[in-house]
Amino acid sequence: MLWEGLKLMGVGMATVMLFLMLMIACIELVRHLNRNFTTLEQQTLKARRKSSNAPSKPAAQSTVPVEVFAAAITAFESENRTS
Predict the structure, then answer these.
(1) Alpha helices in 1-83 (DSSP H)
(2) Is 68 helix (H, G, I), strand (E, B) or coil?
């Protein structure tokens, strides 16, 4: 009875060990496949940091004021009510 318990423990521990080794291998494979993307992302982040440190330009004002949109909506709604 003790021998069967030890065998079961050995098989269970071996299964867990194999599963963990497979997980590590998959993680390393994904890391290998994404290495170029990671390098590109790091370069993009460095470029963003450099550009954010530069003095920012004032935000461009919209070409059409909000009042024009409000007037257009009011005219459209009044036309739909009358027809």
Answers:
(1) 2-33, 35-53, 66-82
(2) helix
Q: How many residues are given for the chain?
A: 83
Q: Which residues of 7-34 are buried (b: 16+ CB within 10 A; e: fewer)?
A: eeeeeeeeeeeeeeeeeeeeeeeeeeee
Q: What percent of the chain has pLDDT over 90?
A: 47
pTM, whole model, 2 decimals?
0.48
| 43-67 tens-digit pLDDT | 888 888 888 776 666 666 667 788 8
